[in-house]
Write a structure and sequence with these properties.
By secondary structure, the protein is of the alpha+beta class. The chain has helices at residues 4-25, 29-45, 47-54, 60-73, 78-89, 96-110, 126-140, 171-182; strands spanning 113-120, 143-150, 158-162, 165-168.
Length: 189
């Protein structure tokens, strides 16, 4: 059985493909990406909005009217309003966060960008961040867009995440690997 996330991705893909084509045609890719991200954030941050999206007793037309009203008051683009209205009328508002993620992934692919999460044990200087981004760009052939955070629990080093790939160069990671290697095998004959 497919997971909920996989099912939502399957549902979201055709919507995102259509929206992306329309946004590209309207030269509004950045605007749409930002508005979708704000909606996805709202769905996670607002319990009331989350209940609206999830409540099966509220008619899709009522959901559409409410959400489009919110978008109008936020001065969202006409394209976003029409898109979200269609999504709501089709009963797919629960997939908005996945749609936002897929739209941003498609945008990054279009721009040949690789968004990476770099977690470091200590603050990295601007020069270190640039050197790291340049090295990753050289290795991947993409423009690297880093998001750097600090986590002292790593002890030393850093962890790089890009999509489903992770490179752990932290001391904490090395210690974890050593602990696993030193454990007696559970699969001995």
């Amino acid at each position: 059985m497919a997971s909920s996330s996989t099912a939502q991705t399957t549902v979201a893909e055709p919507y995102v493909a259509a929206l992306f084509a329309l946004a590209r045609e309207a030269n509004a890719l950045d605007t749409i990406a930002q508005e979708l991200a704000q909606l996805a954030e709202l769905s996670g941050a607002s319990a009331e909005f989350g209940r609206l999206i999830a409540d099966p007793t509220i008619a899709p037309a009522a959901k559409a009217e409410t959400v489009v009203g919110i978008l109008k008051s936020a001065k969202a683009s006409d394209l976003t309003q029409r898109f979200v209205e269609r999504v709501a009328l089709n009963g797919r508002l629960d997939a908005l966060p996945v749609m936002s993620r897929l739209f941003n992934e498609k945008l990054a692919e279009e721009r040949n960008e690789l968004h990476v999460q770099i977690t470091s044990a200590k603050t990295l200087s601007a020069a270190q961040q640039k050197q790291l981004a340049d090295s990753l760009a050289k290795a991947t052939g993409k423009t690297v867009v880093p998001n750097v955070t600090i986590d002292p629990s790593l002890i030393a080093g850093l962890v790089i995440r890009a999509g489903s790939r992770m490179l752990d160069y932290s001391l904490q990671g090395k210690l974890r690997q050593m602990a696993l290697a030193l454990q007696p095998s559970r699969f001995t004959a």
